Amino acid sequence: xxxxxxxxxxxxxxxxxxxxxxxxxxxxxYVALAAAVGILVAVILYFxxxxxxxxxxxxxxxxxxxxxxxxxxxxxxxxxxxxxxxxILKSKxxxxxxxDSSKVGFCxxxxVGILVAVILxxxxxxxCFKRDIKRLTRxxxDLQKNYDSLKxKxxxxxxxxxDLQKxxxxxxxxxxxxxxxxGDSFExxxxxxxAAAVGILLLVILYFxxxxxxxxxxxxxxxxxxKxxxxxxxILKSKxxxxxxGDSFExxxFVILCFAFCIxxxxxxxxxLTRxxxDLQKNYDxxxxxxxxxxxxxxDLQKxxxxxxxxxxxxxxxxxxxxxxxNMCVYAVDRDWKKLIEVCVKVTLDPDTxxxxxxxxxxxxxxxxxxxxxAEWPSVLGREGFTSGGHYWEVEVGEKGYWVLGVSTHxxxxxxxxKPGEGYWLVRLVKGKTCKAVSQSVDQTLNLEKMCKMWGxxxxxxxxxxxxxxxxxxxxxxxxxxxxxxxxxxxFSPGSHDKGPLIINTKxxxx
Length: 511
Description:
511 residues
């Protein structure tokens, strides 16, 4: 701004010096021309700088908004990740708690099983020992019975032997008596007596010799059996005493040692699990603090985002207010122009709605005045009516001096009134130099430095705005505001003073 003011002052001071030297009408004319040129240059520089500042500010706000959106998405992802980590730690903590209880229960079951197994083993061993004692007692009793039976049998055999000896001696004596009775001689009796005495002596000697040997062998066998039984009895007695004293102590000591070992192992596992649980709790606390820190940072960023959003809304509101309160052309940036191009529609002229003095081309893209002495503003509507949303189309007016562009809610009117009332939102050119924005409440002259040949029309039905642009330079010219009731139609009038056509541009160029 300072450069612009200094430039203007320099031009004015130079012109003043020249006027003072020449002091003529020509010098005054030069001064006036120089002043006008300086003012025009200053105005052009001012609006160029202002447009550049607005463009840079919009780009900066767009970048800030994009960065804030990216930061918001990043924070959202980090929050989701922290939430997942929290859920994992929570489930792992619950699982550790369940595993602790299940492991302790398993250890208790194992200890109880071991104790039951030891008790059953001791009971089985004692039962086996008692069964062996009973079996040995029965064997001892059987041996004693066999010994008694053998002794009784030996005594019976001795008695039977004595009876047989007695029977044999009597038989011999009786035979000898018979022989003596038959022989009746002393010598025979003597021989018989001698033979009997010798036989009896031999029998007695043999009997006592045999009986003594048998008794001796039997006594030796019984002594050995008695010693063996005595040894077995001593062994069984000592084993019984040992089982009664030492085995119970060893079994109890074994059970106590097993129980102590199991308890020590369970305690070691519990300590290990406790340390793991403490480590997990520490990690959880760290993550919780980090999550709280991220939440605070998120809140700060959210506040900054809200502040920037409010500033942006304020800037946009100021910009819109500037558009409403000024007739100056404002350059549409690429982003805004791209939005217009995205809602571009193909408008086709409807011959049924055209005035009789107008001719519409077969493809519905051109209209020209071909009649005589008709209304000043004969019109034609587009086939497409709009009830919502945004719509953009372009019209080539060329070098025509009369034309009307806009929208209308009157589908059956074939001409535009000189003073449009309700239902018309228009821009009208008269005599090639007077351009006006016209509606029921507006009749405003638009100050255009240069008349454009390609006009862009943007209808925001929901927002109640009808905007006009220079489609060649993308400068915003003017915006009409109002409420569009129901269906509105694009309206066109080529005027009634020249034969030049209005051409709808069907090849809108993208950015």
